[in-house]
Amino acid sequence: MDTKIKIKSTNLNVFYGEKQALFDINLDINQNEVTALIGPSGCGKSTFIRCINRMNDVIDICKIQGEIEMDGKNIYAPNTDVVSLREKVGMVFQKPNPFPKSIYDNVCYGPKIHGIAETKDDLDQIVENSLKKAALWNEVKDRLQEPGTSLSGGQQQRLCIARAISVNPEVILMDEPCSALDPIATAKIEELIDELKTTFTIIIVTHSMSQAVRVSQKTGFFHLGKLIEVGTTEKIFKNPTNNMTQDYITGRFG
Amino acid sequence: MTDDTHIVKSYGEELQFLNDSLIQMGSLTESLLADSMNAIIILDKDAVARIVESDKKINEYRAKIDSQIMTLLVKRAPMAIDLRFAITSLRISQDFERIGDLAKGNAKKMLPLPQNLPQDLLSSLKRLGNVVDAQLNKSLDAYIKKSKDIAIEVIRLDTSVNEHTFLAIKEVLAYLSKDPKNLEYATNLLFVAKNLERAGDHIRRVAENIYYFVEGDYYKKS
Ligand SMILES: Nc1ncnc2c1ncn2[C@@H]1O[C@H](COP(=O)(O)OP(=O)(O)O)[C@@H](O)[C@H]1O
Ligand SMILES: [Mg+2]
């Protein structure tokens, strides 16, 4: 299978007021792959993935230079429809954050506001499919009207993944999706990520080296706002080129 | 490995400890090989018991290093250079153990030998032994310094080991052709030469692993 570049960041610079958070980021994200972003706290990983669905737009002091292309189109071009961009690029956060609504409503919320589903039957179908894809259906199919917050942490995170999937995105951004989960819940999410990549392009920020190795095909190492090294995950973790990468992944600096 | 800058101090210490264990094991192997070679040349049959004991110690090192590495893998999930260090150290300790076995085997081969072996034969075996000794010594040097250049020198010494093996075997065959009664002795001496050649192969593998550790890629003859 030929790898196709889904997202291309070219000379991306990001500022929060005076402070520059990202410096000349050039990074290609392959379609139907998992790309892991690693690096010490504050190095700009979240800033980078938030550029991809233009979440940084809502931060007044945030200025962005350079380009991010998705399928060859600059998402920062003036005529970009940000609402439809966010439909295409879903996001899952560190802490599971289900709405204070039923499991069912959590999943159908997106399709409703984006006008994807017309009838109740359509919605039912989307809810079922999304929960199945998120590997949660069997656990919740008999309790769809219970509040999302009644689920365990790992189930809540899979609910959030189902919610992200429900609007048929092309890309899913995950910002440390397992950091609040126990090892078993983490293992389930990781397995899920592996399945999801056949349908979606995934970018995951993680603090766990072994998680990056388990789930991703490509890894980028950020340090102080710069992309220090990017390569196949195998290369990065067996034999990185850059000494800083090596020091970070072997635990020689934090 | 000596630049212990790990944030988790005990992790750095564990790597250092593994490094030290392997150096000790290698040094022991080196003296065992020299001891066994020397004993053959001067036909010191009393040395056999001592050599068998040393070999046991080398086997113990191997077991100890195995478990150190196992613990390291589960406890630290080493990455990159640390991962390569753990894996190559595991392989190197296996090669050291095999070299010890071969040296011990050689020592045992001298038990039936007569006192009056021809000088030419002995000196050709001795030269072969010296080349292999020097090769092992160099490989230990490469390990201590983590030097890919020294590792390459060790790999290249393989040709020299093979040449000396060929010459030693020629001498053994000449000795055999003098008198068919020499057959049993000659067979033993052939084993000695062949075992030294095989020890050389293990030493080459040690060096190849050191190269892999340093470069993250396998050595290719250029
Ligand atoms: N909303 C914000 N306002 C100002 N500075 C921010 C904001 N978000 C992040 N930063 C700064 O940008 C840098 C990168 O942060 P972030 O992208 O969150 O890093 P990471 O996700 O790798 O921990 C940090 O120095 C952080 O303090
Ligand atoms: Mg972050």
Describe the structure.
- The complex is a heterodimer of chains A (254) and B (222).
- Chain A has 254 residues and is α/β, with parallel strands linked by helices.
- Chain A has a single domain, classed as P-loop containing nucleotide triphosphate hydrolases (Rossmann fold).
- Chain A has ten helices and ten strands.
- A six-stranded mixed β-sheet of chain A has the order 6-7-8-3-9-10, with helices on both faces. In chain A, strands 2-1-4-5 form a four-stranded antiparallel β-sheet, with helices on one face.
- In chain A, helix 3 packs across helix 4, helix 3 packs parallel to helix 6 and helix 6 packs parallel to helix 7.
- Chain B is mostly helical and 222 residues long.
- Chain B starts with 8 loop residues before the first helix and ends in a 7-residue tail after the last helix.
- The chains are: A alpha/beta (254), B mainly alpha (222).
- Bound molecules: adenosine-5'-diphosphate and magnesium ion.
- The site of adenosine-5'-diphosphate has 11 residues of chain A, from helix 1.
- Coarse morphology of chain B: elongated
* Share of residues in strands of chain B: under 5%
CATH architecture annotation name of chain A: 3-Layer(aba) Sandwich
Largest sheet properties of chain A: 6 strands, mixed
- The CATH homologous superfamily of chain A is called P-loop containing nucleotide triphosphate hydrolases
Which secondary structure elements does this structure contain, and how are they paired or packed?
The complex is a heterodimer of chains A (254) and B (222).
Chain A: E1 5-16, E2 19-30, E3 34-38, H1 45-52, E4 62-70, E5 73-74, H2 82-88, E6 89-92, H3 103-113, H4 120-133, H5 137-140, H6 153-165, E7 171-175, H7 183-196, E8 201-205, H8 209-215, E9 218-223, E10 226-232, H9 233-238, H10 243-249
Parallel strand pairs in A: 3-8, 3-9, 6-7, 7-8
Antiparallel strand pairs in A: 1-2, 1-4, 4-5, 9-10
Chain B: H1 9-42, H2 47-76, H3 80-109, H4 119-145, H5 148-178, H6 183-215
The structure holds adenosine-5'-diphosphate and magnesium ion (MG).
Residues 16, 21, 39, 41-47, 59 of chain A line the site of adenosine-5'-diphosphate.
